Amino acid sequence: MAPVNSSSSDNSPARRILVTGGAGYIGSNTTLQLLDAGYEVVVADNLSRGHRAAVDPARLREVDLLDTEGLVRVMSEKPLDAVIHFAAYIAVGESMKTPETYFHNNTAGSLSLLTAMIRTGVRHVVFSSTAAVYGMPTTVPIPESEPYAPVNAYGESKVMVEKMLDWFDRIHGLRSVCLRYFNASGADPDCRAGESHDPETHLIPLIFRAVQTGTPVTLFGDDYPTPDGTCIRDYIHVSDLARAHIVAVESLVKGGASKKYNVGTGRGYSVREVLQAVEAVTGKPVPYQFGPRRDGDPPTLVADSTRLQSELGWKPVDSELTRIVETAWRWANRKA
Ligand SMILES: NC(=O)c1ccc[n+]([C@@H]2O[C@H](COP(=O)([O-])OP(=O)(O)OC[C@H]3O[C@@H](n4cnc5c(N)ncnc54)[C@H](O)[C@@H]3O)[C@@H](O)[C@H]2O)c1
Fold it and tell me: Hey, whose CA ends up nearest to atom 7 of ligand 1?
Protein backbone atom coordinates (compact mmCIF):
# COMPACT_ATOMS: atom_id res chain seq x y z
CA MET A 1 0.00 0.00 0.00
CA ALA A 2 1.36 3.46 -0.85
CA PRO A 3 1.99 5.74 2.11
CA VAL A 4 -1.06 7.86 2.81
CA ASN A 5 0.85 10.34 4.91
CA SER A 6 4.21 11.19 3.39
CA SER A 7 6.21 14.42 3.47
CA SER A 8 8.55 13.83 0.57
CA SER A 9 8.96 12.27 -2.82
CA ASP A 10 11.36 9.36 -3.21
CA ASN A 11 14.45 11.47 -3.88
CA SER A 12 13.81 14.33 -1.48
CA PRO A 13 16.45 14.62 1.23
CA ALA A 14 13.96 16.21 3.64
CA ARG A 15 12.13 13.17 4.82
CA ARG A 16 10.34 13.73 8.13
CA ILE A 17 10.79 11.05 10.77
CA LEU A 18 9.20 10.58 14.19
CA VAL A 19 11.69 9.04 16.63
CA THR A 20 10.11 7.54 19.74
CA GLY A 21 12.54 7.22 22.65
CA GLY A 22 14.81 9.83 21.08
CA ALA A 23 15.92 11.08 24.51
CA GLY A 24 17.53 7.70 25.20
CA TYR A 25 20.88 6.23 24.26
CA ILE A 26 20.33 4.75 20.80
CA GLY A 27 17.51 7.14 19.90
CA SER A 28 19.59 10.26 20.59
CA ASN A 29 22.53 8.91 18.58
CA THR A 30 20.26 7.99 15.67
CA THR A 31 18.56 11.39 15.78
CA LEU A 32 21.94 13.07 15.38
CA GLN A 33 22.79 10.93 12.38
CA LEU A 34 19.39 11.55 10.81
CA LEU A 35 19.90 15.31 11.21
CA ASP A 36 23.46 15.06 9.83
CA ALA A 37 21.99 13.29 6.80
CA GLY A 38 19.43 16.04 6.21
CA TYR A 39 16.29 14.46 7.69
CA GLU A 40 13.75 16.39 9.69
CA VAL A 41 13.21 14.77 13.08
CA VAL A 42 10.56 15.00 15.77
CA VAL A 43 11.17 13.12 19.03
CA ALA A 44 8.37 11.59 21.11
CA ASP A 45 9.57 10.67 24.59
CA ASN A 46 8.04 10.76 28.08
CA LEU A 47 11.52 11.21 29.61
CA SER A 48 10.83 8.31 32.00
CA ARG A 49 14.28 6.88 31.30
CA GLY A 50 15.83 9.34 28.90
CA HIS A 51 17.45 12.74 29.27
CA ARG A 52 15.91 16.10 28.46
CA ALA A 53 19.35 17.45 27.59
CA ALA A 54 19.73 14.79 24.88
CA VAL A 55 17.07 16.44 22.69
CA ASP A 56 16.80 19.90 21.16
CA PRO A 57 13.74 21.36 22.95
CA ALA A 58 12.24 22.48 19.64
CA ARG A 59 12.14 18.87 18.50
CA LEU A 60 10.88 17.24 21.69
CA ARG A 61 7.25 16.26 22.20
CA GLU A 62 6.75 15.01 25.76
CA VAL A 63 4.24 12.25 25.22
CA ASP A 64 3.74 8.75 26.57
CA LEU A 65 3.51 5.85 24.12
CA LEU A 66 0.34 4.75 25.89
CA ASP A 67 -1.32 8.09 25.13
CA THR A 68 -2.72 7.25 21.69
CA GLU A 69 -4.52 10.61 21.36
CA GLY A 70 -1.33 12.47 22.24
CA LEU A 71 0.58 10.50 19.60
CA VAL A 72 -2.13 11.21 17.03
CA ARG A 73 -1.75 14.93 17.77
CA VAL A 74 2.04 14.77 17.28
CA MET A 75 1.70 12.72 14.10
CA SER A 76 -0.86 15.14 12.71
CA GLU A 77 1.39 18.20 13.05
CA LYS A 78 3.00 17.65 9.64
CA PRO A 79 3.17 14.65 7.29
CA LEU A 80 5.63 11.95 8.32
CA ASP A 81 7.51 9.47 6.14
CA ALA A 82 8.27 6.97 8.88
CA VAL A 83 8.47 6.24 12.57
CA ILE A 84 11.60 4.85 14.22
CA HIS A 85 10.40 3.23 17.42
CA PHE A 86 13.01 2.99 20.19
CA ALA A 87 10.86 3.83 23.23
CA ALA A 88 10.80 0.94 25.68
CA TYR A 89 12.06 -0.29 29.02
CA ILE A 90 15.22 -2.31 28.54
CA ALA A 91 16.31 -3.93 31.83
CA VAL A 92 16.12 -7.73 31.61
CA GLY A 93 16.38 -8.22 35.39
CA GLU A 94 13.59 -5.73 36.07
CA SER A 95 11.40 -7.51 33.50
CA MET A 96 11.71 -10.70 35.55
CA LYS A 97 10.55 -8.91 38.71
CA THR A 98 7.64 -6.93 37.21
CA PRO A 99 6.78 -8.46 33.82
CA GLU A 100 3.51 -6.49 33.83
CA THR A 101 5.53 -3.27 33.50
CA TYR A 102 7.21 -4.61 30.38
CA PHE A 103 4.09 -5.95 28.68
CA HIS A 104 2.35 -2.67 29.51
CA ASN A 105 5.06 -0.23 28.44
CA ASN A 106 6.75 -2.15 25.61
CA THR A 107 3.94 -4.24 24.15
CA ALA A 108 0.79 -2.22 24.89
CA GLY A 109 2.81 0.97 24.31
CA SER A 110 3.78 -0.26 20.85
CA LEU A 111 0.18 -1.24 20.11
CA SER A 112 -0.87 2.30 21.00
CA LEU A 113 1.80 3.66 18.64
CA LEU A 114 0.70 1.39 15.78
CA THR A 115 -2.91 2.41 16.37
CA ALA A 116 -1.92 6.08 16.12
CA MET A 117 0.00 5.32 12.93
CA ILE A 118 -3.04 3.67 11.35
CA ARG A 119 -5.23 6.60 12.38
CA THR A 120 -2.84 9.15 10.87
CA GLY A 121 -1.92 7.20 7.75
CA VAL A 122 1.77 6.65 8.57
CA ARG A 123 2.67 3.28 7.10
CA HIS A 124 6.42 2.76 7.73
CA VAL A 125 8.05 1.81 11.02
CA VAL A 126 11.52 0.68 12.03
CA PHE A 127 11.28 -1.22 15.30
CA SER A 128 14.00 -1.73 17.95
CA SER A 129 14.00 -5.44 18.53
CA THR A 130 16.69 -7.46 20.24
CA ALA A 131 18.80 -10.61 20.30
CA ALA A 132 16.74 -11.46 23.41
CA VAL A 133 14.00 -12.78 21.08
CA TYR A 134 16.20 -15.85 20.50
CA GLY A 135 16.83 -16.83 24.15
CA MET A 136 19.38 -19.65 24.18
CA PRO A 137 20.13 -20.01 20.47
CA THR A 138 20.91 -23.37 18.90
CA THR A 139 22.94 -21.92 16.01
CA VAL A 140 25.82 -19.43 16.47
CA PRO A 141 26.32 -17.04 14.68
CA ILE A 142 22.56 -16.67 14.95
CA PRO A 143 20.62 -16.34 11.69
CA GLU A 144 17.22 -14.61 11.58
CA SER A 145 15.63 -18.01 10.95
CA GLU A 146 16.41 -19.08 14.52
CA PRO A 147 13.01 -19.56 16.22
CA TYR A 148 11.61 -17.21 18.85
CA ALA A 149 12.52 -18.61 22.27
CA PRO A 150 12.86 -15.71 24.72
CA VAL A 151 13.91 -16.59 28.26
CA ASN A 152 12.84 -13.33 29.87
CA ALA A 153 9.79 -11.07 29.85
CA TYR A 154 11.72 -8.27 28.14
CA GLY A 155 12.45 -10.53 25.14
CA GLU A 156 8.85 -11.74 25.09
CA SER A 157 7.56 -8.15 25.12
CA LYS A 158 9.55 -7.59 21.91
CA VAL A 159 8.49 -10.88 20.27
CA MET A 160 4.87 -9.82 20.77
CA VAL A 161 5.51 -6.54 18.96
CA GLU A 162 7.26 -8.32 16.07
CA LYS A 163 4.19 -10.55 15.73
CA MET A 164 1.79 -7.60 15.89
CA LEU A 165 3.79 -5.96 13.11
CA ASP A 166 3.25 -9.04 10.89
CA TRP A 167 -0.51 -8.69 11.36
CA PHE A 168 -0.50 -4.92 10.82
CA ASP A 169 1.29 -5.48 7.52
CA ARG A 170 -1.17 -8.16 6.38
CA ILE A 171 -4.25 -6.24 7.42
CA HIS A 172 -3.33 -2.55 7.22
CA GLY A 173 -0.38 -2.54 4.80
CA LEU A 174 1.84 -1.06 7.53
CA ARG A 175 5.37 -2.06 6.52
CA SER A 176 8.10 -2.55 9.11
CA VAL A 177 11.74 -3.37 9.54
CA CYS A 178 12.53 -5.07 12.85
CA LEU A 179 16.19 -4.59 13.76
CA ARG A 180 17.34 -7.15 16.30
CA TYR A 181 20.29 -5.46 17.97
CA PHE A 182 23.01 -7.36 19.75
CA ASN A 183 25.05 -5.39 22.35
CA ALA A 184 24.74 -1.68 21.60
CA SER A 185 27.87 0.12 22.77
CA GLY A 186 30.18 3.08 22.16
CA ALA A 187 29.28 6.75 21.79
CA ASP A 188 29.02 9.39 19.10
CA PRO A 189 32.63 9.92 17.86
CA ASP A 190 32.13 13.70 18.26
CA CYS A 191 30.96 13.10 21.84
CA ARG A 192 27.52 14.63 21.25
CA ALA A 193 25.59 11.61 22.64
CA GLY A 194 26.32 8.42 24.52
CA GLU A 195 25.12 5.89 27.05
CA SER A 196 23.73 7.01 30.46
CA HIS A 197 21.23 4.51 31.83
CA ASP A 198 19.96 4.60 35.41
CA PRO A 199 20.33 2.00 36.72
CA GLU A 200 23.12 1.00 34.35
CA THR A 201 23.18 -2.70 33.47
CA HIS A 202 25.56 -2.70 30.50
CA LEU A 203 29.09 -4.04 30.76
CA ILE A 204 31.28 -1.26 29.34
CA PRO A 205 29.79 1.65 31.35
CA LEU A 206 29.86 -0.54 34.48
CA ILE A 207 33.55 -1.29 33.93
CA PHE A 208 34.22 2.44 33.46
CA ARG A 209 32.46 3.17 36.72
CA ALA A 210 34.77 0.69 38.48
CA VAL A 211 37.80 2.40 36.93
CA GLN A 212 36.53 5.84 37.97
CA THR A 213 35.42 4.96 41.53
CA GLY A 214 37.75 2.13 42.48
CA THR A 215 34.74 0.00 43.51
CA PRO A 216 35.05 -3.43 41.88
CA VAL A 217 32.55 -4.34 39.18
CA THR A 218 30.91 -7.75 39.63
CA LEU A 219 31.09 -9.93 36.53
CA PHE A 220 28.62 -12.78 36.19
CA GLY A 221 30.26 -16.17 35.76
CA ASP A 222 33.73 -17.37 34.77
CA ASP A 223 32.82 -21.02 34.22
CA TYR A 224 31.03 -20.83 30.87
CA PRO A 225 31.99 -23.22 28.04
CA THR A 226 33.96 -20.48 26.24
CA PRO A 227 37.74 -20.23 25.73
CA ASP A 228 38.30 -18.03 28.82
CA GLY A 229 35.18 -19.05 30.77
CA THR A 230 33.36 -15.71 30.39
CA CYS A 231 30.36 -14.88 28.21
CA ILE A 232 30.91 -13.83 24.62
CA ARG A 233 28.83 -11.03 23.12
CA ASP A 234 28.65 -9.21 19.80
CA TYR A 235 29.28 -5.49 20.46
CA ILE A 236 27.86 -3.18 17.84
CA HIS A 237 28.81 0.50 17.85
CA VAL A 238 25.84 2.81 18.27
CA SER A 239 26.90 4.75 15.14
CA ASP A 240 26.70 1.56 13.08
CA LEU A 241 23.31 0.86 14.64
CA ALA A 242 22.13 4.36 13.75
CA ARG A 243 23.19 3.81 10.13
CA ALA A 244 21.20 0.55 10.06
CA HIS A 245 18.07 2.58 10.93
CA ILE A 246 18.68 4.99 8.11
CA VAL A 247 19.06 2.24 5.49
CA ALA A 248 15.96 0.56 6.94
CA VAL A 249 13.89 3.76 6.65
CA GLU A 250 15.08 4.24 3.09
CA SER A 251 14.15 0.69 2.11
CA LEU A 252 10.62 1.16 3.46
CA VAL A 253 10.08 4.57 1.89
CA LYS A 254 11.25 3.20 -1.44
CA GLY A 255 8.64 0.44 -1.27
CA GLY A 256 10.63 -2.39 0.29
CA ALA A 257 8.80 -5.24 2.01
CA SER A 258 8.62 -5.85 5.76
CA LYS A 259 11.78 -7.54 7.05
CA LYS A 260 13.55 -8.66 10.19
CA TYR A 261 17.31 -8.24 10.45
CA ASN A 262 20.02 -8.98 12.99
CA VAL A 263 22.36 -6.07 13.65
CA GLY A 264 25.76 -7.18 14.88
CA THR A 265 29.28 -7.68 13.60
CA GLY A 266 29.52 -11.47 13.50
CA ARG A 267 32.52 -11.25 15.85
CA GLY A 268 32.19 -11.90 19.58
CA TYR A 269 34.31 -10.68 22.48
CA SER A 270 34.46 -12.26 25.93
CA VAL A 271 33.97 -10.28 29.12
CA ARG A 272 37.69 -10.70 29.84
CA GLU A 273 38.57 -9.34 26.39
CA VAL A 274 36.40 -6.29 27.06
CA LEU A 275 38.17 -5.78 30.41
CA GLN A 276 41.54 -5.93 28.65
CA ALA A 277 40.39 -3.46 25.99
CA VAL A 278 39.28 -1.01 28.71
CA GLU A 279 42.62 -1.34 30.49
CA ALA A 280 44.46 -0.72 27.21
CA VAL A 281 42.38 2.35 26.28
CA THR A 282 42.25 3.95 29.74
CA GLY A 283 45.74 2.93 30.84
CA LYS A 284 44.24 2.00 34.21
CA PRO A 285 43.61 -1.32 35.94
CA VAL A 286 39.97 -2.41 36.26
CA PRO A 287 38.96 -3.48 39.79
CA TYR A 288 36.63 -6.48 39.37
CA GLN A 289 35.33 -9.63 41.01
CA PHE A 290 33.47 -12.62 39.66
CA GLY A 291 30.01 -13.51 40.95
CA PRO A 292 27.82 -16.47 40.02
CA ARG A 293 26.24 -16.86 36.57
CA ARG A 294 23.05 -14.89 35.92
CA ASP A 295 19.95 -16.88 35.07
CA GLY A 296 19.19 -16.92 31.37
CA ASP A 297 22.60 -15.69 30.14
CA PRO A 298 23.63 -17.77 27.10
CA PRO A 299 27.40 -18.43 26.89
CA THR A 300 27.68 -16.94 23.40
CA LEU A 301 25.51 -14.48 21.46
CA VAL A 302 26.89 -13.54 18.08
CA ALA A 303 24.85 -12.26 15.15
CA ASP A 304 24.81 -13.48 11.61
CA SER A 305 23.97 -10.17 9.96
CA THR A 306 24.78 -11.13 6.38
CA ARG A 307 21.11 -10.59 5.44
CA LEU A 308 21.24 -6.90 6.40
CA GLN A 309 24.56 -6.54 4.60
CA SER A 310 23.47 -8.21 1.37
CA GLU A 311 19.92 -6.84 1.17
CA LEU A 312 20.37 -3.27 2.40
CA GLY A 313 24.09 -2.72 1.79
CA TRP A 314 24.80 -1.94 5.46
CA LYS A 315 28.08 -2.84 7.05
CA PRO A 316 29.65 -2.10 10.42
CA VAL A 317 32.49 0.43 10.18
CA ASP A 318 32.90 1.67 13.78
CA SER A 319 32.52 -1.58 15.72
CA GLU A 320 36.11 -2.62 16.29
CA LEU A 321 36.34 -3.12 20.08
CA THR A 322 39.02 -0.46 20.68
CA ARG A 323 36.97 2.13 18.77
CA ILE A 324 33.89 1.24 20.82
CA VAL A 325 35.76 1.59 24.11
CA GLU A 326 37.57 4.79 23.06
CA THR A 327 34.41 6.62 22.03
CA ALA A 328 32.53 5.43 25.13
CA TRP A 329 35.43 6.44 27.41
CA ARG A 330 35.48 9.93 25.91
CA TRP A 331 31.73 10.18 26.57
CA ALA A 332 32.14 8.91 30.14
CA ASN A 333 34.72 11.66 30.78
CA ARG A 334 32.97 14.49 28.96
CA LYS A 335 32.65 17.84 30.64
CA ALA A 336 29.01 18.40 31.57
N1 LIG B 1 20.89 -0.83 24.57
C2 LIG B 1 20.97 -2.04 24.01
O3 LIG B 1 22.02 -2.71 24.05
C4 LIG B 1 19.78 -2.61 23.28
C5 LIG B 1 19.90 -3.89 22.73
C6 LIG B 1 18.80 -4.41 22.04
C7 LIG B 1 17.65 -3.66 21.88
N8 LIG B 1 17.57 -2.42 22.43
C9 LIG B 1 16.34 -1.66 22.24
O10 LIG B 1 16.68 -0.37 21.75
C11 LIG B 1 15.75 0.61 22.23
C12 LIG B 1 16.50 1.78 22.81
O13 LIG B 1 17.37 1.31 23.84
P14 LIG B 1 18.25 2.37 24.67
O15 LIG B 1 19.43 1.64 25.19
O16 LIG B 1 18.44 3.59 23.87
O17 LIG B 1 17.23 2.66 25.88
P18 LIG B 1 17.06 4.00 26.73
O19 LIG B 1 16.44 3.60 28.03
O20 LIG B 1 18.33 4.79 26.77
O21 LIG B 1 16.01 4.84 25.88
C22 LIG B 1 14.64 4.52 25.85
C23 LIG B 1 13.86 5.81 25.75
O24 LIG B 1 12.47 5.51 25.64
C25 LIG B 1 11.74 6.39 26.48
N26 LIG B 1 10.49 5.71 26.87
C27 LIG B 1 10.36 4.55 27.55
N28 LIG B 1 9.05 4.25 27.70
C29 LIG B 1 8.35 5.25 27.11
C30 LIG B 1 6.96 5.52 26.94
N31 LIG B 1 6.02 4.73 27.45
N32 LIG B 1 6.60 6.63 26.27
C33 LIG B 1 7.53 7.48 25.77
N34 LIG B 1 8.86 7.28 25.90
C35 LIG B 1 9.26 6.17 26.57
C36 LIG B 1 12.66 6.66 27.66
O37 LIG B 1 12.33 7.85 28.36
C38 LIG B 1 14.02 6.73 26.97
O39 LIG B 1 14.34 8.04 26.55
C40 LIG B 1 14.83 -0.12 23.20
O41 LIG B 1 13.63 -0.44 22.53
C42 LIG B 1 15.60 -1.38 23.54
O43 LIG B 1 14.73 -2.45 23.86
C44 LIG B 1 18.61 -1.88 23.13
Answer: 130
Ligand 1 site residues (CB inside 6 A) read 21, 23-27, 45-50, 64-66, 86-90, 105, 109, 128, 130, 181, 183-184, 197
pTM of the model: 0.96
Name the residue of 67, 86, 202, 262 whose CB sits within 8 Å of the most ligand 1 atoms, as the mutation to test its pocket: 86
Domain 16-186+236-264 in CATH 3.40.50.720:
yes
Note whether 45 and 62 are within 8 A (CB): yes
User: Ligand 1 atom closest to Cα of 105?
Assistant: 31
Q: How far is CA 51 from CA 16, 23, 24, 54, 82, in A?
A: 22, 5, 6, 5, 23
Q: What CA–CA distance (Å, rounded) separates 110 from 161?
A: 7
Query: Which residues carry out catalysis?
Result: 154
Euclidean distance between CA atoms 108 and 26, whole angstroms: 21
pLDDT in tens, 115-171: 999 999 999 999 999 999 999 999 999 999 999 999 999 999 999 999 999 999 999
Over residues 72-90, the pLDDT tens digits come to 999 999 999 999 999 999 9
> What residues have CB less than 8 Å from 75, skipping those under 6 apart?
5, 18, 116, 117, 120, 122
User: What are the residue ranges spanned by the domains of the chain?
Assistant: 16-186+236-264
Give distance in angstroms: CA of 320 to centre of ligand 1: 24
Helix (H, G, I), strand (E, B) or coil at 126: strand
